Structures are given as structure tokens and as C-alpha cells.
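Re: that chain you flagged

S.,

Sorry for the slow reply, it's been a week of failed gels. I finally had a moment to sit down with the sequence you sent. For the record, here it is as I used it:
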Amino acid sequence: MKTPRSKYILLAGVAALAACAVSAQVPVQNIDPARHGNLAAAQRLVVQAFERLSDAQNANDSQLGGHAARAKELLREANEEIKLAAEAANRR
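Prediction finished late last night. Pasting the C-alpha cells below so you have them in one place:
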């Protein structure tokens, strides 16, 4: 059975949109600076770095070899770890 070419094109478009949605998720600042000043500051810097990477991607037409996108993913992970550190401190 042959699948029409348009189905493959549609599938590729959906995959591209999903990738854009993931890369668009900016890390959040959700640590109380009054409670955890250093962790909140680190989180703020992660958000700033993420925004600068987005600026670099836009300025270079996203032609950065995927490295900026990978750096953004690592920043999202770092942001989550910072949040987990604050939650661990809250449990003490």
C-alpha cells in the first residue's frame, strides 16, 4: 500500500511544530528571592542566558549547528535542578 506524499509532508510539519513548541519554553523564575537569594539569582541568570541564546538564533537565522538549541535545553534542565535545590532546602 502506498502512502500519499502529502501525509509525509504533513507529518514532517507536525514534527517541526512540536520541536518549535519545546524550544519556545523559556525557563521560569519561581524561587522566592527572600528565602533563597542565591538560587533565585542563579535562576534569573539562566533565564537571561536563554534569552540571549534566542537572540543569537534569531540574528543568525538559526544557523548555529544545533548548538544553541542544545544549550537552551541544558539551561532548562539547569533551571529545574535549581528549583529542586530550593525545594530540598525548604524541606530542611
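What I noticed first: The chain has a mean pLDDT of 88.

Talk soon,
D.
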